[in-house]
Amino acid sequence: MFENLSERLSGVFDRLTKQGALSDEDVATALREVRVALLEADVSLPVARDFVKAVQEKATGQAVTKSITPGQQVVKIVHDALIDVLKGEGEPGALKIDNPPAPILMVGLQGSGKTTTTAKLAKRLKDRDGKRVLMASLDVNRPAAMEQLAILGMQIGVDTLPIVKGEDPVAIAKRAKTQAGLGGYDVYMLDTAGRLHIDADLIAQAAAVRDVANPRETLLVVDGLTGQDAVNVATEFDDKIGVSGVVLTRMDGDGRGGAALSMRAVTGKPIKFVGLGEKMDAIETFEPERIAGRILG
Ligand code: GDP
Protein backbone atom coordinates (compact mmCIF):
# COMPACT_ATOMS: atom_id res chain seq x y z
CA MET A 1 0.00 0.00 0.00
CA PHE A 2 2.78 2.41 0.90
CA GLU A 3 5.78 3.26 -1.18
CA ASN A 4 9.05 2.48 0.45
CA LEU A 5 10.56 5.65 1.92
CA SER A 6 14.14 4.47 1.68
CA GLU A 7 13.72 3.85 -2.03
CA ARG A 8 11.83 7.06 -2.52
CA LEU A 9 14.62 9.07 -0.87
CA SER A 10 17.29 7.31 -2.88
CA GLY A 11 15.29 8.14 -6.01
CA VAL A 12 15.19 11.81 -5.10
CA PHE A 13 18.92 11.90 -4.61
CA ASP A 14 19.77 9.89 -7.67
CA ARG A 15 18.32 12.71 -9.70
CA LEU A 16 20.65 15.21 -8.08
CA THR A 17 24.26 15.59 -9.08
CA LYS A 18 26.88 14.59 -6.60
CA GLN A 19 28.11 17.43 -4.49
CA GLY A 20 30.55 17.68 -1.64
CA ALA A 21 27.92 18.26 1.02
CA LEU A 22 24.18 17.91 1.36
CA SER A 23 22.73 21.21 0.12
CA ASP A 24 19.74 22.93 1.71
CA GLU A 25 17.75 22.07 -1.37
CA ASP A 26 18.67 18.37 -1.23
CA VAL A 27 17.68 18.20 2.38
CA ALA A 28 14.44 20.11 1.85
CA THR A 29 13.46 17.79 -0.99
CA ALA A 30 14.20 14.71 1.05
CA LEU A 31 12.41 16.01 4.10
CA ARG A 32 9.22 16.60 2.17
CA GLU A 33 9.25 12.89 1.44
CA VAL A 34 9.99 12.08 5.06
CA ARG A 35 7.08 14.21 6.23
CA VAL A 36 4.68 12.51 3.86
CA ALA A 37 5.93 9.09 4.93
CA LEU A 38 5.47 9.96 8.60
CA LEU A 39 1.94 11.16 8.02
CA GLU A 40 1.17 8.03 6.03
CA ALA A 41 2.47 6.02 8.96
CA ASP A 42 -0.11 7.85 11.10
CA VAL A 43 2.32 10.04 13.00
CA SER A 44 0.47 13.15 14.18
CA LEU A 45 1.12 16.37 12.30
CA PRO A 46 2.81 18.38 15.09
CA VAL A 47 5.07 15.42 15.88
CA ALA A 48 5.96 14.96 12.22
CA ARG A 49 6.73 18.68 11.93
CA ASP A 50 9.00 18.77 14.99
CA PHE A 51 10.73 15.63 13.88
CA VAL A 52 11.42 16.92 10.39
CA LYS A 53 12.77 20.17 11.84
CA ALA A 54 15.19 18.28 14.08
CA VAL A 55 16.38 16.17 11.16
CA GLN A 56 16.80 19.24 9.00
CA GLU A 57 19.13 20.80 11.54
CA LYS A 58 21.19 17.63 11.70
CA ALA A 59 21.37 17.04 7.97
CA THR A 60 22.02 20.47 6.52
CA GLY A 61 25.61 20.96 5.53
CA GLN A 62 26.64 17.49 6.59
CA ALA A 63 29.56 16.27 4.47
CA VAL A 64 28.58 13.57 2.03
CA THR A 65 30.24 10.33 2.98
CA LYS A 66 32.04 8.63 0.12
CA SER A 67 30.90 5.13 0.89
CA ILE A 68 27.15 5.79 0.79
CA THR A 69 24.89 7.80 -1.48
CA PRO A 70 23.33 11.07 -0.26
CA GLY A 71 19.98 9.28 -0.26
CA GLN A 72 21.28 6.57 2.03
CA GLN A 73 22.89 9.19 4.18
CA VAL A 74 19.62 11.05 4.75
CA VAL A 75 17.85 7.75 5.42
CA LYS A 76 20.46 7.04 8.09
CA ILE A 77 20.04 10.46 9.68
CA VAL A 78 16.26 9.97 9.72
CA HIS A 79 16.64 6.44 11.10
CA ASP A 80 18.92 7.58 13.93
CA ALA A 81 16.58 10.46 14.78
CA LEU A 82 13.63 8.03 14.92
CA ILE A 83 15.52 5.80 17.32
CA ASP A 84 16.34 8.81 19.50
CA VAL A 85 12.65 9.63 19.90
CA LEU A 86 11.47 6.03 20.22
CA LYS A 87 13.83 4.76 22.86
CA GLY A 88 12.93 5.53 26.46
CA GLU A 89 15.07 5.34 29.54
CA GLY A 90 15.83 1.93 30.97
CA GLU A 91 15.67 -1.48 29.46
CA PRO A 92 12.63 -2.08 27.28
CA GLY A 93 10.23 -4.55 28.85
CA ALA A 94 11.77 -4.32 32.32
CA LEU A 95 9.12 -4.26 35.04
CA LYS A 96 9.57 -3.20 38.65
CA ILE A 97 8.47 -6.34 40.40
CA ASP A 98 10.83 -6.67 43.32
CA ASN A 99 9.42 -6.97 46.89
CA PRO A 100 6.79 -9.63 46.36
CA PRO A 101 3.90 -9.57 45.99
CA ALA A 102 4.28 -6.75 43.44
CA PRO A 103 1.03 -5.26 42.16
CA ILE A 104 0.69 -4.41 38.47
CA LEU A 105 -2.32 -2.32 37.51
CA MET A 106 -3.60 -2.78 33.97
CA VAL A 107 -5.66 0.08 32.55
CA GLY A 108 -7.10 0.96 29.16
CA LEU A 109 -10.25 1.25 27.11
CA GLN A 110 -12.52 -1.66 26.37
CA GLY A 111 -11.39 -3.52 23.27
CA SER A 112 -7.81 -2.27 23.49
CA GLY A 113 -6.60 -5.77 24.32
CA LYS A 114 -6.22 -5.21 28.06
CA THR A 115 -7.38 -8.61 29.28
CA THR A 116 -5.44 -10.46 26.58
CA THR A 117 -2.33 -8.43 27.43
CA THR A 118 -2.75 -9.10 31.15
CA ALA A 119 -2.70 -12.84 30.45
CA LYS A 120 0.15 -12.58 27.94
CA LEU A 121 2.30 -10.68 30.44
CA ALA A 122 1.42 -13.12 33.23
CA LYS A 123 2.51 -15.99 31.02
CA ARG A 124 5.70 -14.21 30.12
CA LEU A 125 6.53 -13.50 33.75
CA LYS A 126 5.88 -17.14 34.60
CA ASP A 127 7.74 -18.71 31.66
CA ARG A 128 10.69 -16.37 31.29
CA ASP A 129 11.21 -15.05 34.78
CA GLY A 130 9.90 -18.00 36.79
CA LYS A 131 7.48 -15.77 38.70
CA ARG A 132 4.35 -16.92 40.46
CA VAL A 133 1.57 -14.70 39.23
CA LEU A 134 -2.01 -14.15 40.39
CA MET A 135 -4.45 -12.35 38.08
CA ALA A 136 -7.69 -10.66 39.15
CA SER A 137 -10.40 -9.09 37.03
CA LEU A 138 -12.02 -5.99 38.48
CA ASP A 139 -14.55 -5.58 35.68
CA VAL A 140 -17.64 -6.03 37.84
CA ASN A 141 -19.96 -4.61 35.18
CA ARG A 142 -18.99 -7.24 32.63
CA PRO A 143 -19.13 -10.78 34.02
CA ALA A 144 -17.97 -11.99 30.59
CA ALA A 145 -14.69 -10.12 31.03
CA MET A 146 -14.15 -11.78 34.41
CA GLU A 147 -14.86 -15.18 32.88
CA GLN A 148 -12.51 -14.40 29.98
CA LEU A 149 -9.59 -13.79 32.34
CA ALA A 150 -10.37 -17.01 34.25
CA ILE A 151 -10.41 -18.99 31.00
CA LEU A 152 -7.14 -17.47 29.82
CA GLY A 153 -5.63 -18.22 33.23
CA MET A 154 -6.53 -21.87 32.87
CA GLN A 155 -5.08 -21.96 29.37
CA ILE A 156 -1.73 -20.53 30.40
CA GLY A 157 -1.50 -22.15 33.81
CA VAL A 158 -1.72 -18.94 35.84
CA ASP A 159 -4.01 -18.62 38.86
CA THR A 160 -6.89 -16.17 38.89
CA LEU A 161 -8.58 -14.81 41.97
CA PRO A 162 -11.90 -16.64 42.44
CA ILE A 163 -14.86 -14.54 41.34
CA VAL A 164 -17.14 -13.42 44.18
CA LYS A 165 -20.42 -11.91 43.01
CA GLY A 166 -21.40 -8.48 44.30
CA GLU A 167 -17.92 -7.31 45.27
CA ASP A 168 -16.75 -3.86 44.16
CA PRO A 169 -13.39 -3.31 42.41
CA VAL A 170 -11.67 -1.92 45.50
CA ALA A 171 -12.76 -4.93 47.57
CA ILE A 172 -11.48 -7.26 44.83
CA ALA A 173 -8.15 -5.44 44.75
CA LYS A 174 -7.81 -5.81 48.52
CA ARG A 175 -8.68 -9.48 48.35
CA ALA A 176 -6.13 -9.96 45.56
CA LYS A 177 -3.45 -8.31 47.70
CA THR A 178 -4.25 -10.51 50.69
CA GLN A 179 -4.41 -13.64 48.57
CA ALA A 180 -1.13 -12.78 46.81
CA GLY A 181 0.59 -12.35 50.17
CA LEU A 182 -0.82 -15.49 51.74
CA GLY A 183 -0.28 -17.59 48.62
CA GLY A 184 3.35 -16.60 48.18
CA TYR A 185 2.87 -14.97 44.77
CA ASP A 186 5.59 -12.77 43.31
CA VAL A 187 3.24 -10.60 41.30
CA TYR A 188 -0.47 -9.88 41.24
CA MET A 189 -2.07 -8.26 38.24
CA LEU A 190 -5.24 -6.19 38.48
CA ASP A 191 -7.19 -6.06 35.24
CA THR A 192 -9.38 -2.98 35.68
CA ALA A 193 -12.68 -2.35 33.93
CA GLY A 194 -12.58 -0.89 30.44
CA ARG A 195 -15.09 1.40 28.82
CA LEU A 196 -15.51 2.45 25.24
CA HIS A 197 -14.57 6.01 26.16
CA ILE A 198 -12.79 7.59 29.05
CA ASP A 199 -15.40 8.84 31.52
CA ALA A 200 -15.31 10.16 35.06
CA ASP A 201 -16.57 6.88 36.46
CA LEU A 202 -13.87 4.83 34.80
CA ILE A 203 -11.15 7.17 36.03
CA ALA A 204 -12.57 7.34 39.57
CA GLN A 205 -12.70 3.56 39.76
CA ALA A 206 -9.14 3.10 38.47
CA ALA A 207 -7.88 5.81 40.86
CA ALA A 208 -9.59 4.16 43.84
CA VAL A 209 -8.00 0.83 42.95
CA ARG A 210 -4.63 2.48 42.47
CA ASP A 211 -4.87 4.03 45.93
CA VAL A 212 -5.47 0.72 47.69
CA ALA A 213 -3.08 -1.37 45.59
CA ASN A 214 -0.22 1.13 45.35
CA PRO A 215 0.94 -0.51 42.11
CA ARG A 216 4.61 -0.94 41.26
CA GLU A 217 3.67 -0.59 37.60
CA THR A 218 0.59 0.94 35.99
CA LEU A 219 0.53 -0.27 32.43
CA LEU A 220 -1.73 1.37 29.91
CA VAL A 221 -2.86 -0.88 27.08
CA VAL A 222 -3.70 0.95 23.85
CA ASP A 223 -4.59 -0.19 20.38
CA GLY A 224 -1.62 0.68 18.17
CA LEU A 225 -3.86 0.92 15.13
CA THR A 226 -5.77 3.88 16.49
CA GLY A 227 -2.96 6.38 15.85
CA GLN A 228 -3.65 9.78 17.27
CA ASP A 229 -6.51 8.46 19.41
CA ALA A 230 -4.07 6.17 21.17
CA VAL A 231 -1.97 9.19 22.08
CA ASN A 232 -4.97 11.14 23.38
CA VAL A 233 -6.03 8.18 25.51
CA ALA A 234 -2.53 7.89 26.93
CA THR A 235 -2.31 11.58 27.74
CA GLU A 236 -5.61 11.47 29.58
CA PHE A 237 -4.89 8.30 31.53
CA ASP A 238 -1.49 9.61 32.50
CA ASP A 239 -2.87 12.96 33.67
CA LYS A 240 -5.62 11.37 35.72
CA ILE A 241 -4.13 8.12 37.03
CA GLY A 242 -0.42 8.18 36.28
CA VAL A 243 1.02 5.60 33.94
CA SER A 244 4.44 3.95 34.26
CA GLY A 245 4.49 2.37 30.81
CA VAL A 246 2.51 1.66 27.68
CA VAL A 247 1.72 -1.56 25.84
CA LEU A 248 0.82 -1.05 22.18
CA THR A 249 -1.37 -3.84 20.88
CA ARG A 250 -2.25 -4.93 17.33
CA MET A 251 1.20 -4.09 16.08
CA ASP A 252 0.81 -7.19 13.90
CA GLY A 253 -1.74 -5.20 11.88
CA ASP A 254 -1.33 -3.05 8.79
CA GLY A 255 -0.36 0.09 10.66
CA ARG A 256 3.07 1.50 10.05
CA GLY A 257 3.90 2.09 13.69
CA GLY A 258 3.45 5.85 13.67
CA ALA A 259 1.44 5.70 16.90
CA ALA A 260 4.62 4.60 18.66
CA LEU A 261 6.48 7.72 17.55
CA SER A 262 3.64 10.08 18.49
CA MET A 263 3.20 8.25 21.79
CA ARG A 264 6.82 8.75 22.75
CA ALA A 265 7.05 12.31 21.48
CA VAL A 266 3.83 13.49 23.13
CA THR A 267 3.62 11.54 26.40
CA GLY A 268 7.29 10.75 26.99
CA LYS A 269 6.14 7.45 28.53
CA PRO A 270 8.19 4.34 27.82
CA ILE A 271 6.57 1.82 25.51
CA LYS A 272 7.39 -1.40 27.30
CA PHE A 273 5.79 -4.08 25.14
CA VAL A 274 4.03 -4.57 21.84
CA GLY A 275 1.23 -7.03 21.18
CA LEU A 276 1.66 -8.95 17.96
CA GLY A 277 -1.41 -11.16 17.71
CA GLU A 278 -4.15 -12.94 19.59
CA LYS A 279 -2.07 -15.88 20.82
CA MET A 280 -0.75 -15.91 24.35
CA ASP A 281 2.87 -15.77 23.19
CA ALA A 282 2.29 -12.86 20.83
CA ILE A 283 3.95 -10.19 22.96
CA GLU A 284 7.46 -8.79 22.71
CA THR A 285 9.52 -6.12 24.31
CA PHE A 286 9.36 -2.87 22.39
CA GLU A 287 12.23 -2.58 19.91
CA PRO A 288 12.82 0.98 18.64
CA GLU A 289 14.92 -0.40 15.76
CA ARG A 290 12.08 -2.47 14.49
CA ILE A 291 9.54 0.35 14.60
CA ALA A 292 11.98 2.76 12.96
CA GLY A 293 12.46 0.24 10.16
CA ARG A 294 8.74 -0.12 9.78
CA ILE A 295 8.12 3.62 9.61
CA LEU A 296 10.90 4.01 7.05
CA GLY A 297 9.53 1.07 5.10
P1 GDP B 1 -10.16 -5.63 26.40
O1 GDP B 1 -11.61 -5.30 26.23
O2 GDP B 1 -9.31 -4.41 26.35
O3 GDP B 1 -9.87 -6.47 27.61
O4 GDP B 1 -9.75 -6.43 25.10
P2 GDP B 1 -9.48 -8.00 24.89
O5 GDP B 1 -8.26 -8.41 25.62
O6 GDP B 1 -10.72 -8.75 25.15
O7 GDP B 1 -9.11 -8.00 23.34
C1 GDP B 1 -10.04 -7.66 22.33
C2 GDP B 1 -9.69 -8.43 21.07
O8 GDP B 1 -8.44 -8.01 20.56
C3 GDP B 1 -9.57 -9.93 21.30
O9 GDP B 1 -10.17 -10.59 20.22
C4 GDP B 1 -8.07 -10.16 21.33
O10 GDP B 1 -7.71 -11.46 20.90
C5 GDP B 1 -7.59 -9.11 20.34
N1 GDP B 1 -6.19 -8.70 20.57
C6 GDP B 1 -5.59 -8.32 21.72
N2 GDP B 1 -4.30 -8.00 21.53
C7 GDP B 1 -4.05 -8.18 20.21
C8 GDP B 1 -2.88 -8.00 19.38
O11 GDP B 1 -1.79 -7.60 19.80
N3 GDP B 1 -3.04 -8.29 18.05
C9 GDP B 1 -4.23 -8.72 17.54
N4 GDP B 1 -4.27 -8.98 16.24
N5 GDP B 1 -5.32 -8.88 18.29
C10 GDP B 1 -5.26 -8.63 19.60
Automatic annotation (TrEMBL):
Q: Where is the SRP54-type proteins GTP-binding domain?
A: 270-283
User: Is this entry keyworded Heme?
Assistant: no
Give the EC number(s) listed in the UniProt record: 3.6.5.4
The GO biological-process annotations, alphabetized, read as: SRP-dependent cotranslational protein targeting to membrane
GO (cellular component) term, any one:
plasma membrane
Q: How does it sit in the membrane?
A: Peripheral membrane protein
Principal cellular location given in the protein's record: membrane
Domain of life the protein comes from: Bacteria
**Annotated residues for binding of GTP:** 108-115, 191-195, 249-252
- Catalyzed reaction equations: GTP + H2O = GDP + phosphate + H(+)
Stated family: Belongs to the GTP-binding SRP family. SRP54 subfamily.
Task of the protein: Involved in targeting and insertion of nascent membrane proteins into the cytoplasmic membrane. Binds to the hydrophobic signal sequence of the ribosome-nascent chain (RNC) as it emerges from the ribosomes. The SRP-RNC complex is then targeted to the cytoplasmic membrane where it interacts with the SRP receptor FtsY. Interaction with FtsY leads to the transfer of the RNC complex to the Sec translocase for insertion into the membrane, the hydrolysis of GTP by both Ffh and FtsY, and the dissociation of the SRP-FtsY complex into the individual components.
Know the name of this protein? Signal recognition particle protein
Q: Which organism is it from?
A: Roseobacter insulae
